[in-house]
Amino acid sequence: METIDARDLACPEPVIRTKKALENSKDGKLTVIVNSTEANENVQRFAKNQGCSVKAAEKNGVFTLEINKTGQAPEICQAKAVVMLIASDQLGVGDEALGQLLIAAFINTLPEAKTRPMKMLFINRGVLLTTEGSRVLDSLQKLESNGVQIFSCGTCLNHYQLKEKLKVGKVTNMYDTVDSLLNADNVIRI
Question: What pTM does this model have?
Answer without folding.
Answer: 0.75
